[in-house]
């Protein structure tokens, strides 16, 4: 667990997954020691179910004599030794990540993310906000951020061009994260594939309960005693992508649906902002349908 | 929220549900004032969804000049005024409630309830424990409580006589609560009906997620970040009865199924013991598929 | 628990505290029934420690034939019957409450409250924001709200005129709540008295732990495993006023002070916004050093 | 986070703290790789405040060709390289740890720990229970465990011989943990020193709030909205030892002290059992007044 790095605390962050075998930690840590890397965070996970090994290591950038490019080149050799299935990234916490938000009419997640970005809590620049309604244009622009309104036809079968327009607006920023901040539109399969591993959604229920539309109405009808929210990567199967973070809040018989909606907002904001920060800090490794989160 | 009444703090507890209209509170509270009732707890709920009104009121028994029988007789007239749909009970907290537990091999809920009963936390006597395995006989008998072992055939189609034997053993105590403390057997429909409103189950997931068998395995496979437990009244539809209480606990990628099983036990114990206590203190009103819990 | 009333759901809210005796509920509810009041929320608390009784009742305004003024006049007679110590208010949820915020440099509570007010979550108008630093002027004005900068001298002994200026700016709005949203200045005793029952502070620790300055540094030094926040009414004794709400969040050995500061913000926002909403909805009754919160 | 190891899953667990410098992870992991160690858990913490580095690594015992004795001998050389301040242990999860419990009259923590030990949740044998009251003898003996009653004089100044007797009864088992399971006696300074790092207490408040006697009465008087419990190592300064674990539970104005006592028990049991398990699994490293918990 750690804060976005201040300027004097730049880090190189290595994330890696590979089939488990003896000596991986030794190989990686020896490499990091050889380049002078002073480790400030290290986390490991050996998954007995899949037989894979995952790690995230952060070294103080100033302790390493190589450039990021050189470091990547050198580490590629280590990764090659670990085998062809090895997946890894080497990120520079000094690089400001780019984020694009997709919104609809609900303002609370947008307000929350804009406030956190302004306050320096998110290690990212919000490049643009795209809405299928114009309602949230003003608050976005008050933060000096571009807002694009894309009109969506009522008939789902005719939404292809609108989604195409969204794709272009998003891709213009080549973002590290595309956040569906209560966007309320189901992404077409090709966009799910195109933004795989970068598109993050907030669903307003404790998945897998209450998939799909109007989850608070479903929760009310079932009489549950807690409501929740789930932040997950978007995949083609609705609300079934790898879960990043979840949380719940207590309700009781006195809560009408509108009370659940209000209470739920607080959880949605928290869960989405946590999940997005972990994504931007390279703390999440996806394997199959599940996530390893080195929070 | 209140403790089991000590001997000098006996209460009469009125629970009532009726279609909502103006003047119900006035009618009931005027009645209670007329009989001298000193109210120590009062809770109300007007449900806009169903149009019903629910209340629970506890008065100090020593403040009322009438016997419980007389009080019931007198209140029946008030209830009649409120209309034929009115449902009500008038309980005496000085009466020791009777509880029968159904168990299998898992010991944690049994240990927990026996410990709470011994410590005076549950306003009830545990009359008997019935197991479809003999494993928990010793710990039960160490508390001076009868244990009955009922052998269940492997073939579900042949379990009728075993359930009949359970029914007889349970009904011999005319219990206020029949607790399925990780019993692991699906009650036949006629037993669900026979013990309606008295049979309480603990399901080891956050319902409606992971209905049915092996919920921790289902949770592991889905990669959820919280696991839960649900205490509910038993109805003929599996794991779909009115929910009394739920809670969750955090897990992460490092939790194997056996870790979830261990962590989950703590939540199962808490949720079941809370739900059972509320039931025994007449804090739960069931309406349709939902509960009003005046905790 | 209930939402701010929509226009078609206006309520009259009666809050009352009085020494306990038999018949209070009957007297009040009979009165409400006589004026046709349809009760949508009712809560009671008989406090054995102080011997006082507290209640909050909300009736649908449209069900009552009298004006608010007439209702108050009529109820004053009932209150008089209940004795001279009786304290009560009768509020109209249709009246938009006025709030003034005092801030310093920290933006998160301000962002959060502005967002909630804009989203209709707070049943109030934020009339003005006053800062002892100019930093938060822009975000305030972007919401169309007046910002006043009042310069505070370094020497605490010389701050009298600055506080006097703050007092005038606040009192110009005759606000229902004066919120110290991370104001970081200790109010002088006469202001505490002047705004008694209306001044609400958020303290960034789980009181009574870590009173005074730099509570996260104190928490870090002590090695606690949870950090918290406390919303309380301001009184002359520092951080010792009646507690309205508290909550905590988990930390561990990996949290530096700056991580606690960031995590703590999420709890501060939640706790302050809950406490303020309850205050504005007349859900809080103060008795001595403690609160009764009918949430 | 991991379960007590089953017989076929024995582990060697290395815990180490040392002043931080580059290459420590490489040195340790290279050593483990050289002896064939298959790492199943690894955790690291570099503490910028103290400048120390902490790690815990668990390797599958069956993957290592050396005996535990040989492994310790070989690792001593590595530790020597890391410098004279290095503190380390190498434990065998196959060794059953020994625990002695000190109790008074309150039964809930004892019930809970006996139940967990019986259910295989605690990787330990409870060797003996010592009480300064005889009340809990029967439940202890029903589990086949020795109970020793030691009478404590009323005058604290005369309790020396009683503590001496407790010391002898405890030390006869050379236990890995001496648990004050609501013992309600302040250990004399020499016993704190004698059992340093092994004596674990459960305090029934969220420390540092409400140090000393009757914390629930203190919490009630202050009107807090959450009550808590704290598991910590015992040191000479009352309730001020390194904190292992804490948790809280919500209360409100309706809770009398006796309700807090009952609710608090659930938290005390959870917090103590978690802390004790982590201690027995060698997951806790103490540095100065704080703990690193690799849970």
From TrEMBL, chains A, B, C, D:
PROSITE patterns: ACT. InterPro entries: ACT-like_dom_sf, ACT_dom, Formyl-FH4-Hydrolase_C, Formyl_transf_N, Formyl_transf_N_sf, PurU, PurU_ACT. GO terms for molecular function: formyltetrahydrofolate deformylase activity. Residues 13-89 form the ACT domain. Keywords: Hydrolase, One-carbon metabolism, Purine biosynthesis. It catalyses: (6R)-10-formyltetrahydrofolate + H2O = (6S)-5,6,7,8-tetrahydrofolate + formate + H(+). SUPFAM superfamilies: ACT-like (SSF55021), Formyltransferase (SSF53328). Pfam families: Formyl_trans_N. Pathway: Purine metabolism; IMP biosynthesis via de novo pathway; formate from 10-formyl-5,6,7,8-tetrahydrofolate: step 1/1. The active site is at residue 239. Its EC number is 3.5.1.10. PANTHER family: FORMYLTETRAHYDROFOLATE DEFORMYLASE (PTHR42706), FORMYLTETRAHYDROFOLATE DEFORMYLASE 2, MITOCHONDRIAL (PTHR42706:SF1). Belongs to the PurU family. This is Formyltetrahydrofolate deformylase. It comes from Rhodococcus kronopolitis.
């Amino acid at each position: 667990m750690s804060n976005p790095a201040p300027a004097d605390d730049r880090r190189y962050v290595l994330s890696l997954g590979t089939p488990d075998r003896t000596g991986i930690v030794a190989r990686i840590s020896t490499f990091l020691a050889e380049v002078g890397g002073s480790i400030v965070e290290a986390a490991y996970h050996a998954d007995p179910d899949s037989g894979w090994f995952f790690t995230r290591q952060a070294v103080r950038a100033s302790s390493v004599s190589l450039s990021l490019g050189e470091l990547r080149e050198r580490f590629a050799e280590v990764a090659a030794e670990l085998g062809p299935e090895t997946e890894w990234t080497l990120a520079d916490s000094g690089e400001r990540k780019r984020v694009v938000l997709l919104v609809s009419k609900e303002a609370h997640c947008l307000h929350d993310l804009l406030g956190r970005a302004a306050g320096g809590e998110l290690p990212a620049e919000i490049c643009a906000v795209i809405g299928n309604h114009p309602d949230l244009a003003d608050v976005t622009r008050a933060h000096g951020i571009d807002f694009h309104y894309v009109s969506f036809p009522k008939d789902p079968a005719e939404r292809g061009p609108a989604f195409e327009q969204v794709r272009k607006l998003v891709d213009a920023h080549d973002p590290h994260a595309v956040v569906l901040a209560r966007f309320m539109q189901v992404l077409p399969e090709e966009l799910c594939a195109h933004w795989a591993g970068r598109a993050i959604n907030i669903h307003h229920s404790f998945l897998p309960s209450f998939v799909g539309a109007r989850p608070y109405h479903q929760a009310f009808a079932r009489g549950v005693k807690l409501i929740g929210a789930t932040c997950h990567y978007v995949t083609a199967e609705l609300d079934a992508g790898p879960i990043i973070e979840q949380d719940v809040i207590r309700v009781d018989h006195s809560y009408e649906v509108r009370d659940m909606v209000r209470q739920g907002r607080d959880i949605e904001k928290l869960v989405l902002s946590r999940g997005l920060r972990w994504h931007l800090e390279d703390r999440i490794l996806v394997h199959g349908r599940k996530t390893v989160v080195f929070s």
